[in-house]
């Protein structure tokens, strides 16, 4: 199939300027040419983009695809079967896609459902975004991903509990065997976990290094849930590719991240929604309490890291309380409200997100020979970032999923 897109303004993820009077020719899954008054030798279908702003398909770098903002996810995890969670996840993933996120990175789900979905989408069995998946989360006993449940209750395939470098190595190898693209691990405590604190370090540097080495050996990535400064630094020294949340990031962490080219995925949407909805909405007491303690530091430290030049990528932590699939572009709005330049918020959701995933040769910008992942919005997002929440056109790999 060939398409020629006409009549739009372009933010291509490369130029600082908005480009005009340009056409894009799409051939199969790829962008074939970009220029003025393109004519196709074959019978390309012309699509009038109605003067909208065209951008690269976005990258959502942190979701839990089997969860959709339930106030108390532990209850759901216990009550819901893996087949039901998987069916729901296929719907949530489609919402991410229709919101303009053509590539989505999962950061922890039960039963390897994210890996199953990836295969269903890649094979064309189901429609969905391009997934990059992590399988089970590596956590210490009593750590962030080790749910506080009685001994007779366990959640199949949610966390891999590891308490030594050898166990971490084995668990990482197991995720890779199952098809993970990223090994996700918990360097610190967190907000949603009942038995720990965000500031406390969990997996040791040695444990993380053992897991990260396995991922890197096969050309894959490693990501750390990391909120406290000590855990952030342990993860960076261990060789991590991205810090997730980075709530209590300090000057030394920023320096280390700059030196090692480590990404920060701040997930501002997660604390924002917990704060907005609170206890009244059924969010557990411990989560609201911890969230109140850290939310102010989180915003301050994020902006400090951004201004220092730390690479950032857009991820919402969708799935956490009231943080819903399909509303992912709220993260761009929160970034801009925090002080990020609108163009940088867009780059964090496109070009830089693709770099984080190691997919920048394939996606993230609108350039010839890249995958035809293209979205459009009404108006100029550099003047009003909120319009990114209302994407009108979605194409992934040359296939149109939405054209309002
Ligand atoms: Zn998360």
Features:
404 residues, binds zinc ion, 18 strands, 12 helices, 34% helix, TIM Barrel, six-stranded parallel sheet, alpha/beta, Urease, subunit C, domain 1
List how many beta strands DSSP finds.
18
Q: Cofactors and ligands present? A: zinc ion
* CATH A-level architecture of the largest domain: Alpha-Beta Barrel
Shape: globular
Give, in order, the helices and strands. Answer: EEEEEEEHHEHEEEHEHEHEHEHHHHHEEE
Main sheet overview: 6 strands, parallel
Mean pLDDT: 96
Structural class, judged by helices and strands? alpha/beta
| Spatial sequence of strands, sheet with the most strands | 11-10-12-13-14-15
Short description:
With 404 residues, this protein is an alpha/beta fold. The chain contains 12 helices and 18 strands. It folds into 2 domains: 2-56 and 365-403, Roll (Urease, subunit C, domain 1), CATH 2.30.40; 58-356, Metal-dependent hydrolases (TIM Barrel, Alpha-Beta Barrel), CATH 3.20.20.
């Amino acid at each position: 199939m060939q398409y020629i897109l006409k009549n739009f303004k372009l933010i291509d993820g490369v130029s600082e300027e908005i480009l005009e009077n340009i056409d894009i020719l799409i051939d199969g899954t790829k962008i074939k040419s970009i220029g003025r008054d393109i004519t196709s030798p074959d019978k390309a279908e012309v699509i009038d983009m109605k003067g909208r702003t065209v951008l690269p398909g976005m990258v959502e770098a942190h979701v839990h695809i089997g969860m959709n903002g339930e106030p108390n996810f532990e209850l759901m995890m216990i009550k819901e079967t893996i087949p039901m969670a998987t069916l729901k996840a296929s719907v949530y993933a489609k919402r991410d896609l229709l919101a303009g996120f053509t590539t989505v990175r999962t950061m922890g789900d039960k039963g390897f459902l994210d890996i199953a979905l990836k295969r269903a989408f890649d094979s064309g069995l189901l429609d969905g975004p391009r997934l990059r998946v992590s399988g089970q989360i590596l956590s210490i006993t009593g750590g962030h991903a080790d749910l506080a449940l009685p001994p007779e209750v366990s959640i199949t395939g949610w966390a891999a509990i590891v308490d030594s470098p050898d166990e971490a190595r084995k668990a990482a190898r197991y995720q890779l065997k199952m098809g993970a693209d990223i090994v996700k691990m918990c360097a610190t405590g967190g907000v949603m976990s009942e038995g720990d604190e965000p500031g406390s370090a969990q997996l040791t540097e040695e444990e993380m290094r053992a897991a990260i080495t396995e991922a890197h050996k096969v050309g894959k990535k490693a990501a750390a849930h990391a909120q406290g400064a000590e855990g952030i630094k342990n993860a960076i020294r261990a060789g991590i590719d991205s810090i997730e949340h980075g709530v209590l990031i300090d000057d030394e962490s920023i320096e280390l991240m700059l030196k090692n080219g480590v990404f920060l995925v701040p997930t501002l949407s997660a604390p924002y929604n917990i704060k907005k909805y609170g206890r009244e909405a059924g969010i557990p007491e411990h989560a609201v309490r911890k969230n109140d303690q850290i939310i102010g530091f989180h915003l301050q430290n994020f902006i400090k890291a951004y201004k220092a030049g730390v690479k950032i990528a857009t991820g919402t932590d969708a799935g956490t309380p009231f943080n819903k699939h399909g509303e992912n572009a709220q993260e761009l709005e929160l970034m801009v409200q925090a002080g990020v330049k609108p163009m940088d918020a867009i780059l964090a959701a496109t070009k830089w997100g693709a770099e984080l995933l190691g997919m920048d040769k394939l996606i993230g910008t609108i350039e010839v020979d890249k995958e035809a992942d293209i979205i459009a919005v009404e108006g100029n997002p550099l003047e009003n970032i909120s319009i990114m929440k209302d994407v009108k056109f979605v194409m992934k790999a040359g296939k149109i999923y939405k054209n309002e």
